[in-house]
Amino acid sequence: MGAQETSTDTIYALSSARGVGGVAVVRVSGPSSQDSLELLSEQAAPTPRVASLRTLKNPATHAVIDHALVLYFKAPHSFTGEDVVEYHIHGGVAVTQNLLQALSLQPNHRMALAGEFTKRAFLNAKLDLTQAEGLNDLIHAETDTQAQQALEQMNGALFDLYEGWKREIMHVLALMEADLDFSDQDLPDDILLKITPTLDDVRTKMAQHLDDGRKGELRRNGVKLAILGAPNAGKSSLINLIAERDVAIVTNTAGTTRDALDIHVNINGHAVIITDTAGLRDASETSDSIEHLGMQRARARGAEADIKLLLFDAKKYPDLDPHTLNLIDDKSILAVNKIDCLTPDKRDDLPTHFVQISCATHEGLGSLLHEISSRCAHLTTRASPAPLLTRARHRDCVQDALNALNRAINAPLPELMAEDLRLSLRALGALTGRVDVEDILDKIFRDFCIGK
Ligand SMILES: Nc1nc2c(ncn2[C@@H]2O[C@H](COP(=O)(O)OP(=O)(O)O)[C@@H](O)[C@H]2O)c(=O)[nH]1
Ligand SMILES: [Mg+2]
Fold first, then answer.
1. Which pTM does this prediction carry?
2. What pLDDT, on the 0 to 100 scale, is given for residue 1?
3. In the sheet where 332-337 sits, what is the strand order?
4. Which atom from ligand 1 is nearest to the alpha carbon of 311?
């Protein structure tokens, strides 16, 4: 904990969104939260977990702050594990300010730091790191699939998975250490026969968990889609249409869009980050150095995108832009814009694997969005009900744990094998924030200790 961060402090903050609302919730956590409640309400704290109406007054001036619904949670039965008070007040800016100001004057009270309530919950073992991350993801979820994934994680799906692996490795370690205690020889065959299948099983599960096509991360972070095409193909018109607002400038001057521009949208429940890019043309066709940089940036965005939407100009058909054609691969969706400019016969000539759209008449937009959402579904739908990795942090830790297990399997000496197993446990411990590996091992050893 930092210098200004001690758990003897009582912390408070507005827990609902800022601004005007019907109700605002101010949360207070820490040893003095009951004292301040009793002082502000001029009566004893209500029965824990029973909503009670209280008139809150500023203890210094006795001016009424609000008539509030108050909830008191006694430690350890609260979100943070400490004494917690929730004030449900009328959601005006002045009311909220008055309550926060009154709280600030109370002994040992200070404004909470970002994430501090959850951090206290973690430190009091109310949740592990993956659950805390799940909670944060839930608050920031913009789509249903993100919310579902976050809820699962908050409910401990990843924690259970990783703890399960930890238990299996600890079991192996305990079996080995029991033996190492009375011999410094190689592990006897009967022990090896017991532990090898377990370790192989955990390794397989870890490898499968890692080999998930980044589905969980894509769900959480959003699928990246870059719109690429020649100048004037209608890329900026399309992003504006999807965003339902003017985010990019649309003109008939080639080279108008020079920077990459992102929007976050929800397409059929999928979080998608769409990037409008500078039009691709021969470098010799423009002397504008900013446009050159824009084209480089466009290509880079295309390369890192999960989906490339390659947009062609129907008016140019059959002379489709070669720079854009060059980018076709299995990540691309092909679309041809401005079909309003084509006669029905000419439309029939267009290759059938191109989605036909018109940003002018909105024709075909539904089909294009449908195509994008089915690609997103393909990229984010899991093959089994097992929970998915949702962050690079998880991936790094699981990879470390797997590497250590792989080393353990090939270790030349039992002591070295045991050491690698401990390192694997430590990597899993870092994942959940429960690094009390030695403690748990002690417990297991007590059960296993043979004749000692
Ligand atoms: N007729 C027609 N014109 C379009 C359509 N989409 C875009 N345009 C026009 O094409 C020009 C270039 O559009 P813009 O979105 O700036 O293209 P970008 O360079 O690819 O971003 C503008 O004059 C648009 O009004 C369409 O579907 N039909
Ligand atoms: Mg543009």
1. 0.81
2. 41
3. 261-267, 270-276, 223-229, 307-313, 332-337, 355-356
4. 20
